[in-house]
Amino acid sequence: MAVQILVSETPPACHLPWYDIESVFWVLLIGEAARAGKSLFEHSAGTSLKMLGALKTNLLVTEWLKLTQESYMQNPVGKLLCRMRGLLFNYYWEPTREQDSRITLDVAYEAERFKTQGWEDLEQGADDIANALKEGVKRIDTWFEECINELRAE
Length: 154
Fold this sequence. Notes:
By secondary structure, the chain is mainly alpha-helical. The chain has one domain (3-153). Helix content is 57%, strand content 0%. It is built from six helices and no strands. It has helices at 3-7, 17-35, 49-61, 64-68, 76-89, 122-153. Helix 2 runs antiparallel to helix 5 (76-89) and helix 5 packs antiparallel against helix 6. The mean pLDDT is 86.
């Protein structure tokens, strides 16, 4: 689940497509760690969604640099995860800054590239989200294609 969903006091007004992309990020990351026999979280969140959100936030901000040093992150999937983390969570991310260990955490997707903030006209807002999604998915699709090709080459 997306961090914003986990830590929100009330459900978001609408389900943003970025939540689904973030879910893919978490599935890949947790799956890679599990495949290597590692656990990403030192403490169990139990049934607390807020605690899981806090653990994920800590992983994104505080533990990320250490995590990237793990052997299971030294492959094409690790590179893909670093790119996705930058795109999804770093407010100031640009395509030329793909792997930055320090980020300005943006779990609300307020960066300009998401085009989901401050719209007055709901119809225009929906168009902005659709256009941002097309652009984001195109970039992520390219990254997945590169990852798959690199894995095949290995």
